[in-house]
């Protein structure tokens, strides 16, 4: 969403032309998918990390345009709100050197961003949901980043929905916000992991990623306070799904998927999933005179369907095609070291599941989906149907009994050094006692003071202390 489109206004002919080109490109994709030898079987990893900007009082600082102008670097990009921006990580082949390369890449970019932000008396931080955002921070005129893409996106979603957007869900408290735009989506800041997978096993990797998402949305939760309300442990899930819902009342009643969703079902081939894209109305009919195989219109449309596990097709300079999974369920933070641990533990879980020789589609898909939302709501102490026996167990006990071993095995199979995989596993498994979400809830229960919570959070954040070690 950080890339700009070519026009700010579109007419009916633009939509017709775009949809016709989209259909042609989809047919090309389905032909391409039948040519396995056209695809790479290498494994690579990259990331995008969304960052909050804060002033000296740790209030939202709407200064991303100044910082981005100062950086003048394509590795940093806009987000919907002026008090957020995004770091675009480099891409690495996965082997024993990758964790250090990724660590150095993240810290180098973080340092560049921090130096630029300091010029404007601004702090940078990682939250799943920034706890001190209030209704006034969703004022489009004051806080929306000035890009044609965001303005059109907001108008188009409301136009398709044919009514205002209603954010409404319940944790310990009721969270409610009504908007005539999509600015409530600015509550969400995320870590997006890009995992390039071998095409020959790509369907198994996709299903393994869906299963692993259930575990990671609990153990990685960091979004439990929303506008002063005690919400879901990972509140980004309902916030993003509701804020970008383009269905009108009839389409909601008919059961059409939201633009943000886990998945519609298990799949037998990628053609099934990409066919589902046709069910979603075009947001950006940005017609571009590019070669068919560039898939400009296909990727632009696919990029406005925010599956929590989203497949992306691309072509390398060598001519080989790749497929990667964009893993979108994790929040940003709480710290840089937590971010690295989340990334590697998640990839290890997926790799471990693929190599476990279990039936990755054994659990009824609707049950898997229910588990995902239940764990997002209640966190690491939720129950879910574990993938080996399909029995219902607590996530915390499963992670200790099976999850740690599975992720360690997966990372070993990827060639990650023992010391590194054990470090990441220790950081993640220690969160069974305290995640970012549970720390925020405990802190709020004790002090009932969001400003103090921000001060204490930022104290630990700046020391890069893993969240399981934070005290109240």
- Could you say which structural class the secondary elements and strand pairing correspond to? alpha+beta
Q: Sheet bearing the most strands, described?
A: 8 strands, antiparallel
Radius of gyration: 21 Å
Shape: globular
Annotation field: number of helices: 16
Show unreliable segments: none
Arithmetic mean pLDDT: 96
Q: What is the CATH architecture annotation?
A: 2-Layer Sandwich
CATH class: Alpha Beta
Assess the beta-strand content as a share of residues.
15-25%
CATH topology: Creatine Kinase, Chain A, domain 2
Q: What's the number of structural domains?
A: 1
Please give the alpha-carbon distance between the first and last residues.
36 Å
Number of strands: 16
Helix content: 40-55%
Question: What keywords describe this structure?
Answer:
two-stranded antiparallel sheet; 16% strand; alpha+beta; 472 residues; Creatine Kinase, Chain A, domain 2; single chain
Describe this structure as you would to a colleague.
By secondary structure, the chain is of the alpha+beta class. It has a single domain, classed as Creatine Kinase, Chain A, domain 2 (2-Layer Sandwich). It is 43% helix and 16% strand. The strands form five sheets. Strands 1, 2, 3, 4, 5, 8, 13 and 14 form an eight-stranded antiparallel sheet that branches. Helix 11 packs across helix 13 (395-413), helix 13 (395-413) packs antiparallel against helix 14 (418-429) and helix 15 (436-447) packs antiparallel against helix 16 (450-463). The longest helix has 22 residues, at 12-33. The chain is globular. The relative contact order is 0.14. The mean pLDDT is 96.
